[in-house]
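Section 4.2 – Deliverable D4.2 (structural model, holo form)

The reporting period included a commitment to supply a predicted holo structure for the target in complex with magnesium ion. Inputs used:
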Amino acid sequence: MFKRFIPDYHAASVYDVEIQFFLSHGIKNLLIDLDNTLDSYKLFSPSKRAVVLKEKLIAAGINVFIISNNHGPRVTAYATALGVEYLHSTRKPFAYKVKRLLKEKKYRPEETMLVGDQLITDVLCAKRAGIRVLLTEKIVTEDQWTTHFNRLLDRPIRRYLKKKGRLKEWMTND
Ligand SMILES: [Mg+2]
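Output (structure tokens):
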């Protein structure tokens, strides 16, 4: 039960994860969710820490790509300011846009990881696209209203997975 919701790794925040983690897992492409993973949905330009993280990843030779379910203007403004490529209106948990992206960019699934704060959208989408996924906690308390329904499902499943020891912390050796 809930097998498709079990992330490969878990972190409190993407900002906690050392770049070495991605490198040691052979990750060359990072698909990062925007709202509540990188920054609040209210921000139209990236926070300082988002800029620092992106620069560290790029310096390590890792491609950074924002994949968001949010609409064009918001995602375009943010991603352009951050200086990264992006997909808006991705429709996660559907995976067809992500699969198409992997093909177009020639990203190998085994070298690609998705990072996101939601089980129902991010984790499910990554599983369907055949790539690994790192689940995070949301970084700010407020959500856009469209996310509230997802959280109702997310919360009990997350609690269950945690109780069963199925949320493997990123720093765990394996
Ligand atoms: Mg999100």
